[in-house]
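Name: 3-deoxy-manno-octulosonate cytidylyltransferase
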Amino acid sequence: MKIVAIIPARYSSTRLPGKPLKDICGKPMLWWVYYQVIQLKVFDDIICAIDDKRIQKVCQEFGINYIMTKDDHPNHISRIHEVSTKIKADYYICINGDEPLITKECILPILPSRIQNEPFFGGAMRVLTDPAETMDSSKIKLVVSDMTGRCLYMSRTPVPYPKGSLYFDYKKYIGVECFNKKALDFFVNMPMNDLERVEDIDHLRFLANGVDLHFNYVKSESISVDTLKDLEKVRNIISEKIKNGEIDIGNDK
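Structure predicted for 3-deoxy-manno-octulosonate cytidylyltransferase:
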């Protein structure tokens, strides 16, 4: 079974332009994600899916494997699909290029154990512990129907509504995903639906068309960097980890 890791890195982020190249303790954000992924030693290949020569230059400088993709993809899943047309694999593991705190504990639980014949998506989620983060519309929350991790719905607002009880653990989507080729083909060949359009959540295209999404719980402090505030928070966390000896990057590029 061939499993390829793909790190999509788009330059023209609406809220934080040039996001993959933002400095974090002397290294670009993209490097931190790549650094975490290469520690696993479980992938047949690790590729950054980029769209800009400025990112290409940094990849070359730090010895990061990359593929230049089109710069007009409407979402990251479409970008991963382009890579899947160039590199054949049984599964494509997407690790978002804006989660520099991602760890193996977030990635390993979603690795598939067998080949699926139908469109397959697997992801990771964690319990939200910060009330402010729960109310942040830039973060995607999700609802799970049962103990198997089958997703009923994904939203940017806290659902379900706490009318009957306040005692409920809201869950946050983490930027680690597993697709087979059939799922990627299915996604790019289906039109956007109303749920996806209103929530601005790509994954709702699968749910609206009857494709299950499967999520695993992980313990994580991963933060998706969408704003300067997020970036500053991540810088402080990584700086503290380096100071405490929890991260040793040595002289690695």
